[in-house]
Amino acid sequence: MAVSIIIFLIIFGVLVTSHEFGHFIIAKSGGIRVNEFFVGMGPTLWKKQKGETLYSIKLLPIGGACVFDGEDILGEEGSGDEHSFRNAPVWRRIATLFAGPFANFLIAYILAVILVSFSSWNFPVINKMTDNSAAAEAGIQPGDKIISIDGEKVYMSGEVTLISQFAEGSPMDIVYERDGERHQTTLVPKWSEEDKRYYMGVYMGEYGDIKGAEALKYAWYEVRYYFKSTYRSLALLVKGKLSKDDVSGPVGMVKMVDDTYEEVKPYGLSAVVLTMLSLTVLLSVNIGVMNLLPFPALDGGRLVFQFIEVIIGKRVPAEKEGFVHMIGMIALLGLMVFVLFNDITKFTR
After folding, report:
1. Does position 76 have pLDDT exceeding 60, yes or no?
2. pLDDT at residue 341, as a whole number
3. CB 154 within 8 Å of CB 218
4. Region of residue 269 (left: phi > 0; alpha: psi -120 to 50; beta: else)
5. What value does the mean pLDDT of the chain take?
6. Is beta strand 152-153 parallel, antiparallel or unpaired with respect to 172-178?
7. CB-based contact 155:218 (threshold 8 Å)
8. How far apart are CA 142 and CA 171, in angstroms?
9. What are the pLDDT digits (tens) for 155-177?
10. Considering Cα of 203, then 207, then 213, then 216, what sign does the dihedral take?
11. Among the residues of 239-317, which ranges form H helices?
């Protein structure tokens, strides 16, 4: 477990630091004063003042922040000079807020390029069928390569599984390739009473290497897959089709890292590194998407107020915006506490 905790802290450090650095670099380049840049929450372990910014590392690995002058949660106007966040041009503020999630997407893509270059790609090729397979009834055979499902192009086996899960049993228009020729069919997934879900009735996967500049393209497919799986999972959560046990915080992430580490450790260091890279890509995309949600106190919630200003031509009063973000912050802290205790009880059952 000690090794897993260290791995988690490294992953957490990379993701949070890159996110906050995205805010930081765009703010500084646009003349916005950054009062504090910190990683973690709670008691301060280390700090250093450099220029106008205080840099610090805090005890609890549950977040971080890039604090702009004039962006106080309570709606304080800050120093009021041209370097205050609220006095910056609106599109500069939008760019500064968006830069954090964008940095997560960028680091995910860079890591995905490395991952794709040094690991095998799982192409969406059917290698065998289950008994009473819905795919077989639709005319699909082992060796066929899935090209698209319901008009959505697929490039990896995971995408076929993802789309199938979210189809919820509805007919699926499949375009597949066999012996260089493309065919189209309609597949109706079958319900499994045992698993309480629908299945296409196929086992997917044909592994191959991605060479040279092709890694740039396939890295995008990797990031796109994690992006789709994140927002579609959020949609299921909103619909009430996921339980509280499907949501994890830092404790759950440590457990996930530990389970993954123990599973791949027997295959050697390279397998561990590549698997952790894949997990980092997933979590980085996840953080980017979550922060863009239009919820108060998140980057997405703050962006909402900037776009309101663009539309109506004037700023929302600082005290009103600050009050909304304060309520959002309280709600987020409450959610974090709930998830923390739920993780603890879930993994000690």
Report:
1. no
2. 79
3. no
4. alpha
5. 89
6. unpaired
7. yes
8. 20
9. 999 999 889 888 888 999 999 99
10. positive
11. 250-264, 269-291, 299-312
Query: Residue 242's pLDDT band (boundaries 50, 70, 90)?
Result: low
Task: Give the β-pairing of 172-178 and 145-149.
Answer: antiparallel
pLDDT band, residue 244 (cuts 50/70/90): low
Token pair, residue 159, equals: 């995408």
The burial class, CB within 10 Å (0-12 / 13-18 / 19+), for 164 is: buried
**Phi, psi (deg, nearest 5) at residue 303:** -65, -35
The residue with tokens 């990797």 is 222
pLDDT band at 344 (very low <50, low <70, confident <90, very high): confident
The domains of the chain, with CATH numbers, are 1-120+211-349 (no CATH), 131-200 (2.30.42.10)
Q: Contacts from 305-309 at CB under 8 Å and sequence distance 24+? A: 306/90, 306/93, 306/94, 306/97, 307/94, 309/90
Residue 193 neighbours by CB under 8 Å, 6+ apart? none
Q: For 174-212, write each residue's pLDDT tens digit.
A: 999 999 999 999 999 999 888 888 899 999 989 999 999
Give the span between the Cα atoms of 264 and 273, in whole angstroms: 9
Question: Bridge partners of 182?
Answer: 177
- For tokens 């503020």, the residue is 93
pTM of the model: 0.89
State the CB neighbour count (10 A cutoff) for residue 253: 18
Report the DSSP beta bridge partners of residue 121.
208
Indicate the burial class of 259 (C-beta count within 10 angstroms; 0-12, 13-18, 19 or more): exposed
C-alpha span between 147 and 155 (Å, rounded) = 7
